[in-house]
Amino acid sequence: MTVRPVRTAALIGAPTDVGAADRGSSMGPEALRVAGLGDAIARHGLKVIDRGNVGGPPNPAQPPVGGYRHRAEVFEWNRNVHDAVYRDLEQGNLPVLLGGDHSLGIGTISAVARHCRENGKDLRILWLDAHADFNTSELSPSGNLHGMPLACLCGFGPRELVELGGAAPAISPRWIRQIGIRSVDSGEKRFVHEQGLEVFDMRSVDEMGVRQVMDLALADMHANTHLHVSFDVDFLDPEIAPGVGTTVPGGPSYREAQLCMEMIADTGALASLDIVELNPALDVRNKTAALAVDLIESLFGKSTLIRRRFSEQARHPLRQKINKRAYGREQAAAGGKH
Ligand SMILES: [Mn+2]
């Protein structure tokens, strides 16, 4: 029997909202800690180290300049996040970035992409979000960099952000799977299409259901795939998750979100994670943070039962009974033709 070494999850806080429109996501890391994030992950066989917070400049609350708001501050935060995340990846740890606004995805994913390049791993990015976050300064109505992280990572954005992880572009649009999208700016819509992003918007969730969407989003992964999950809390329906700056109605329900997380956990490929855009100033008694922690626990393998593996499900007695009945009907139908 092989004994698997205990994996270490490293919590890295980045308390800033310099990339966002509303103030308050800077309080996200503490709210997640208070809601018990570390213990929730530790219950699932991982060792948890809390690295504390990386530092960076305060929010100067200035209007956009040259199409970007707080470009210098966003860069400084992301450089620090990149360095912290990269350090933990090098040590074989699973970094969990506690945002902070979603511009911080530039720092984490630049580091993850660099780690994958250096270790010959394939990267897959699951982007759980209400928004596509694929804006550029020309397309963005606001100049807020939390609407631009994926475009920056794909090579479209300020040079210092595009080149943060040493190679530009850091990632290919083909590595991205977006889930839960329901708010895309008009120019951004065309750009997402041109760049060939794989988007499972809420319409696909409505039409196919979470099960089929996740089957497709998680298809063609293999033993050498590094799976990064970027979880924007505004992915969730605002009825259950009010504590975010940019709520969009019509998001996944509690059960739908749980199934997403459980199906990701089933792959066993999760290797790095962002939890972003939680805004405690807009929350109700920390309930959105508690919900996020509940879902993260599922992402790390919490389940109601010890489930049979998929291959074993085919041998489930109930399944065999159903198959036998179907086989009997087929035989009868075939026999009837003679
Ligand atoms: Mn986002």
Explain what you see:
The protein is an alpha/beta fold and 338 residues long. The protein folds into 2 domains: 8-307, Ureohydrolase domain (Arginase, Chain A); 308-338. Helix content is 39%, strand content 15%. The chain contains 12 helices and 8 strands. The model has no long low-confidence stretch (mean pLDDT 94). Manganese (II) ion (MN) binds next to loops.
Bulk shape: globular
Radius of gyration: 21 Å
Number of strands: 8
Overall mean pLDDT score? Answer: 94
Assign a percent range to the helix content.
Answer: 25-40%
The largest β sheet comes out as: 8 strands, parallel
Low-confidence stretches: none
Fraction of residues in β-strands: 15-25%
Task: Give, in spatial order, the strands making up the sheet with the most strands.
Answer: 2-1-3-8-7-4-5-6
Bound molecules: manganese (II) ion
CATH level 1 class label of the largest domain: Alpha Beta
Number of domains: 2
- CATH fold assignment of the largest domain: Arginase, Chain A
Can you tell me the CATH architecture of the largest domain?
3-Layer(aba) Sandwich
**Helix-strand category:** alpha/beta
Could you state the CATH homologous superfamily of the largest domain?
Ureohydrolase domain
Total helical elements:
12
- Quaternary form: single chain
Distance between the termini: 55 Å
Please provide the ordered H/E string of secondary-structure elements: EHHEHEHEHHEHEHEHEHHH
